[in-house]
Amino acid sequence: MEKVNANELEYRNTTSGPKYLFRGPRVDWGLIRFLPGEELGAHLHKQVEETFYFESGTGVIVVDDLEYDIAPGDAFRLEPGEVHNVINTGQEPLDGVFIKHIYRPEDKVSVEE
After folding, report:
1. Within a domain: 52
2. What is the per-residue pLDDT for 89?
3. What is the percent of the chain with per-residue pLDDT over 90, rounded to a whole number?
4. Is 14 a member of any domain?
């Protein structure tokens, strides 16, 4: 058993970005927060499936050059190889949860848009 408290952990950029709650040994999962105008950055995973669930805010998720609106309650599951980016297009923080399976931290490939 492993326990963490999200309030005791920082986002990658202190106030935004990913915040990993668990890293391995079988899954990565955590919280994401993007402030207005911020984005995750286009990337893909060679073997990892990634799922996003959005709790609040608005934005778009771009998957293989197609844009999908994000609203609270939306969930997206991405297959390995799908290029994706999350962009906050709203006026409030965009908050969600991500889950990556299988655990392969070296699997991410950044993509220039």
Report:
1. yes
2. 98
3. 98
4. no
Three-state DSSP string of 44-100 = EECCCEEEEEEEECCEEEEECCEEEEECCCCEEEECCCCCEEEECCCCCCEEEEEEE
Count how many domains the chain has: 1
CATH of the domain at 46: 2.60.120.10
- The pTM (predicted TM-score) of the whole model is 0.95
How far is the CA of 35 from the CAs of 2, 60, 93, 101, in angstroms?
30, 13, 5, 26
Please say if the pLDDT value at position 85 is more than 80. yes
Token pair of 6 as six digits: 């999200």
Q: How many CB atoms lie within 10 A of CB 40?
A: 20
Express each pLDDT in 30-76 by its tens digit.
999 999 999 999 999 999 999 999 999 999 999 999 999 999 999 99
Q: Is residue 4 part of a domain?
A: no
Residue 10 located in a structural domain: no
Q: Domain range holding 67?
A: 19-110
